[in-house]
């Protein structure tokens, strides 16, 4: 039968930046190690703070903790192998391990989009329906929505992963990227993948930009509602809370938009190094910066930090 003579690839090799000179490998490894530690520690601090402080047991903070856990998960899936590639020149990944990484990379991307949708829904209900909000969005409701997001986010990446797992890989196994993903594996398949890639691309657009459409709609409604408030009704506090989440949403969506539209702009090409750098920026910058945005922009968290510091000073004097 035609198509049965392919040599099955047993492992893939993460190349990373193809133009990077070997003398910079250790420096790049340290950079990614620093990113990973900062992401893990910063987001884990938020999780611990939420666990210990009962005053943070509110719907808004439940969704923030969900985002923090998702960011830790993404960094843990994406960075250790990239660090090993530059620290010990170990970029090899088993066949199924690579597909697992691909699935989890796209899973956490989908999950973050759904979490940001939930975050926007929470703010929309809180500001546009303030009297009904306490009964509409309880801790149990938000916990249920969060669990639903963590479950349903597997669907679209799972379809794409299963589809690509069944494709034949007939020799080339070098992945010109920082991790396994649909785009990098597509170029290694021996047969036409236009149908599978179109399905994966359509799924990605749906899971990213349908939530974005609602997010934009909700924030338009929020701005209109806030502008109708009298100044003494907490207008600045509302704007501050929305600005915090607006920063997170902008960091997540805007770089992705430019990456996705680049192939459709005439005379504009992106080298592999630029594509990898851009992908790393929009994938890893938000998980690093999110905890700092929360700490700098959220009044309740700043007050908790001050209280913790005062307790430590009091213990030190004793």
From TrEMBL:
Recorded GO MF terms: G protein-coupled receptor activity; olfactory receptor activity
Entry-linked Gene3D superfamilies: Rhodopsin 7-helix transmembrane proteins
Membrane topology designation: Multi-pass membrane protein
Residue ranges annotated for the G-protein coupled receptors family 1 profile domain, each copy included: 42-294
Residue ranges of the TM segments: 24-48, 60-84, 104-121, 142-164, 206-227, 239-259, 279-297
Entry's localization field: Cell membrane
SUPFAM superfamilies per record: Family A G protein-coupled receptor-like
GO cellular component: plasma membrane
Presence of the UniProt keyword Transmembrane helix in the record: yes
PANTHER family: G-PROTEIN COUPLED RECEPTOR, OLFACTORY RECEPTOR
Pfam families: 7tm_4
Keywords of the record: Cell membrane, Disulfide bond, G-protein coupled receptor, Glycoprotein, Membrane, Olfaction, Receptor, Sensory transduction, Transducer, Transmembrane, Transmembrane helix
InterPro entries per the UniProt record, alphabetical: GPCR_Rhodpsn, GPCR_Rhodpsn_7TM, Olfact_rcpt, Olfactory_GPCR1
Name of protein: Olfactory receptor
Main location: membrane
Family: Belongs to the G-protein coupled receptor 1 family.
Domain of life assignment: Eukaryota
Species for this entry: Seriola lalandi dorsalis
